[in-house]
Design a protein that fits this description.
Helix content is 49%, strand content 8%. The chain is mostly helical. Helix 5 crosses helix 6, helix 10 runs antiparallel to helix 11 and helix 10 packs antiparallel against helix 14.
Length: 345
């Protein structure tokens, strides 16, 4: 939408690794826009933007483990939304103030995304008689405990628990950062954020030449430095692959114990004591955070009580947990080997 309006951003911030969210940039053909991204973003993102590209510290365990080898990239704030990271980036640039458009944190007039977004195109393209575009929008709007909250215009706007995370982040950070003003109305009222107008923003001094001069100082990394970084990563990548293989073996041992005990007659007690030693090996493993990241769905369900409703559910939850460990370890090992080619063999 910005490019369609003739506005070419100086920076684009991308920190969401999900494939479908990367598709929001399908039609983007940036010219001078510089990419600020976390390393786990889809590879298509990096091909789309010209060099130089700027990396921030990864939000995910695998990226963080590899980053220790090549040096820290610098941390950007994470509050669940790319908008929080973009705001923190502008704050770190030293901006004296920020004007935000579309920072609604809700669904004003039942809108979920900016008009012309990939989400809108996808909903229309995939629509049929039973799954209309309107139904997709309805499910998105009402799928996460929607509730009315105070809006910028004094009334209320529909929001949900996803937006509440972002709202809390902005409320806690903006008081300690740059003053922020909203150019669009009808969204959620954010503590510390005031309303403004396009006229007020346009009255600011024109400093295009100064911005261009400063952005022009950002140089691509020399090719020999990039080669050195790649060489430095080979050893750690191989170590992680070996670690994932070890976790896979431990997980398979645990799975075998759980499945054996699942065959115990109902009138006999089960014995899972052998799992204690395996759990200690998993919990003390140097790469446990990498594997556990891909187990979060099961871990979250267990944290909310799954596995406590009787023996059968207990065994099922345990089996799902160790199976997730095995799958996660295999996926990471295979992905790293594929990305490194034959150099790991």
């Amino acid at each position: 939408p910005a490019l369609d309006a003739g506005v070419e951003p100086d920076f684009a911030v991308v920190v969401d690794p999900q494939y479908w969210n990367s598709r929001h940039l399908d039609r983007v053909r940036p010219g001078r826009t510089l990419l600020v991204s976390e390393p786990s973003a889809q590879s298509s993102i990096f091909r789309r933007f010209r060099s130089p590209q700027i990396l921030c510290t990864s939000l995910f365990p695998l990226g963080a483990a590899l980053e220790h080898t090549v040096g820290s990239f610098g941390t950007l704030g994470a509050g669940g939304s790319v908008a929080t990271t973009a705001w923190d980036f502008a704050n770190l640039l030293g901006c004296s103030s920020a004007f935000a458009a579309g920072l609604d944190l809700g669904f004003p007039e039942s809108r979920t995304h900016v008009k012309g977004s990939f989400f809108e195109h996808l909903a229309v393209a995939r629509a049929d008689r039973t799954q209309t575009a309107e139904r997709v929008v309805f499910r998105y709007t009402w799928g996460a405990n929607p509730h009315p909250i105070e809006s910028t215009t004094g009334g209320t706007v529909l929001s949900d628990r996803r937006m509440a995370v972002y709202l809390n982040w902005f409320s806690s950070q903006i008081g300690r950062g740059m003053p922020t003003r909203l150019l669009t109305r009808g969204g959620a009222a954010i503590e510390g954020v005031t309303l403004s107008s396009l006229d007020e923003a346009l009255r600011l001094p024109i400093i295009r030449d100064l911005i261009d001069e400063r952005v022009g100082r950002i140089e691509p990394r020399p090719e020999d430095e990039s080669g050195e970084r790649l060489s430095a990563l080979r050893g750690p990548v191989s170590d992680i692959v070996d670690g994932m293989r070890h976790l896979k073996e431990v997980g398979e041992e645990a799975l075998a114990i759980v499945r054996t005990q699942a065959n115990t007659p109902d009138d006999e007690p089960i014995d899972l004591s052998a799992l204690e030693a395996l759990d200690r090996r998993i919990g003390s493993h140097r790469f446990r955070e990498i594997a556990s990241f891909l187990m979060q769905e099961v871990i979250t369900r267990i944290d909310h009580g799954y596995g406590s409703a009787g023996r059968l559910e207990h065994l099922t939850a345990s089996e799902e947990l160790y199976a997730a460990l095995v799958r996660g370890a295999v996926d990471i090992a295979e992905s790293l080997e594929a990305s490194a080619g034959t150099s790991l063999e």
